[in-house]
Amino acid sequence: MKLNDIKLTNPYLKLDAEFHDRVKPDPLDKAHLIHVNRTVANTLGIDDDELKSEDFVRLLNGEFEAEGSDPFAMCYAGHQFGHFVPRLGDGRAINIGTIDKFQLQLKGAGITEYSRMGDGRAVLRSSIREYLMSEAMTNLRIPTTLCLGIIGSEHPVRRESIEKGAIVCRVSTTWVRFGTFEYYAANGMFKELKELADYVIDESFPHINGRPDPYKLLFNEVMVITSRLMAQWMSVGFNHGVMNTDNMSIGGLTLDYGPFSFLDDYKAGHVSNHTDVEGRYSFENQPAISRWNLEQLMKALSPLTPIEGMEKLLSMYDKVYVRYTHYYMCKKLGLEGTVEGDPELIDDMYDMLEKLQVDYTLFLRTLSHYKHKGDRTDLLATGLYHEPMNEWLNAYDERIKYIDPTERRNQMLNVNPKYVLKNYMLQEGIDAAENGDFSVVDDLFKLAKQPFEEHPEFERWAKATPKEFKNQKLSCSS
Ligand code: AMP
Ligand code: MG
């Protein structure tokens, strides 16, 4: 499809006027393309040669008005660090329309009715992080919003210093958040609340349509996909950093990339966001915080369906989460079926990794190559001391002795990435980009696309994180 042939629809605009602010993007000065995601472009049906055109940059800069264009920002509320904020909304993201089921949104495209004190902009560094990380997550098979492309500019943006503005064109099948429901519930707008619930069922859970008590079923769906998402984050060592209810996707997607990180050394209490002094959103708290967030969603849905039914569902959250975690971790350890002692084997591994300050990704990748009672040199080299790793490996040897070694290895290499985008790697890409060199962003994109491949040219990024960069915290200002 040529850009001129794009026909946008805007299903969200069919909702009551309370749901959105119609607002035109405010383009950046001297915009230029940094990277385009061809897979996403193909999914949208945009022709390859269109991606090199000036009009494509104009599309990402909010200047190209495709047929049906009617841009808007979405209204929502949210619990931020446990405190309810009655009105948030897209303060710097402008929705430009939907192609098939895919809703395009420009993040950093100027102020909206919901910008509060903000400038409606996004800086280059945070945009690069979101652009690369959403691609990395999807290729790790973790549900996430995606990005079509990223543009840079000469547009000055004031943060701690003056930086350059950028825009990522984000793509998702839903942009509704837990906080969207909270907005209408808190304002006693139950007609709009129902309208939203019906819209979300149509958009993300059409199989519920027409079933009895659809709003209870909606809650059940969100509970299950959120617990699965947590199990996936935890199994890959991802810390989101700001799990406010306005950053929780109703579609169970990883949403709003800010001060996130992948674990370097395994550390359950790792906190990515340096303003999170109490560690509310630490790595290990993520599953429990999701349950707390689901509780807020449950309260918001309670005008539509009796709360008792949802409470019963929420009481199953821990069990569902443990089930999913067990499933993903057994795959990562190459364990077939489930035998008694597996949960302990997995827990003991975490204890051992934490004690020995072992790089989480490197350990599991190295373990994938380990043969039953084989050479332990590479594995032992990932830790500070040989005990208790030897002890744990003895237990592991016992567990895998009847498992086909080739099958185990192949399965493990397919679920334990060789590369994850750690913060120090992203920072290398950002440092180069801020000097006008986008080649490192290109390299990191290749790794994001194929995290399970060997990529011998990037071997240094598969090693443990250099000491000086381990477990660093990031600022929220983006
Ligand atoms: P975040 O922490 O990025 O998820 O943002 C929380 C809220 O602040 C959302 O409502 C954002 O739209 C808004 N926000 C963040 N940064 C800006 C900005 N630079 N300008 C306007 N609104 C912003
Ligand atoms: Mg947000």
TrEMBL record:
Q: Where does Mg(2+) bind?
A: N247, D256
Q: Establish whether keyword RNA-binding is in the entry.
A: no
Q: Which residues bind ATP?
A: G89, G91, R92, K107, D119, G120, R170, R177, D256
Q: Does the record carry DNA repair as a key word?
A: no
Q: What is its EC number?
A: 2.7.7.-, 2.7.7.108
Any one GO MF annotation of this record: manganese ion binding
Q: Where is the active site?
A: D246 (proton acceptor)
Q: Which family does it belong to?
A: Belongs to the SELO family.
Q: What is this protein called?
A: Protein nucleotidyltransferase YdiU
Protein's organism: uncultured Sulfurovum sp
Q: Which gene encodes it?
A: ydiU
